[in-house]
Design brief:
It contains 1 helix and 9 strands, in the order H-E-E-E-E-E-E-E-E-E. It has a domain of 70 residues: SH3 type barrels (Roll). The chain has 111 residues and is mainly beta. A hairpin with a 2-residue loop joins strand 5 and strand 6. The longest helix has 16 residues. The chain is 14% helix and 38% strand. The strands form 3 sheets. The protein has a 4-stranded antiparallel beta sheet with strand order 5-6-7-8, with no helix packed on it. It has a 3-stranded antiparallel beta sheet with strand order 2-3-4, with no helix packed on it. InterPro entries: CdsD_C (IPR056283). It holds the Pfam family CdsD_C. Keywords: Signal.
């Protein structure tokens, strides 16, 4: 009797591990949340000339259209640099405490 009860309890625990959450719709699978990875873009210099513009971001000289840390440089103006990933644009300046941290989903990974 003791062994029968232990066996039933063990089976019950094993079955409850894969049980569906009763508060969720039938067949709903909880998806693992993506972890946000901060990316810091630091603008240390902006140079705008008559025919060209460059900026130094994270120690690297970039021009319009260049990619850095998965972001595309959209525009370089005397007071800011506009960068974009595929979903958002960010305005970076030399004067905003030196850097901007941008949260990116780890599913996107490094580009």
């Amino acid at each position: 009797m003791k062994y029968c009860l232990s066996g039933l309890l063990t089976i019950g625990v094993a079955l409850s591990v894969n049980a569906q959450d009763p508060t969720q719709p039938y067949g709903w699978n909880q998806q693992q949340q993506s972890l946000a990875v901060p990316v810091t873009l630091k603008v240390s210099a902006i140079r705008v000339g008559n025919h060209s513009a460059t900026a130094v971001i994270n120690g690297r000289s970039v021009e319009q259209g260049d990619q850095i840390e998965g972001y595309t440089v959209i525009e370089i103006m005397p007071s800011y640099v506009l960068v974009s990933d595929q979903s958002q644009q960010h305005r970076l300046t030399v004067f905003n405490a030196g850097n901007v941290s941008i949260k990116r989903s780890s599913e996107q990974g490094e580009r």
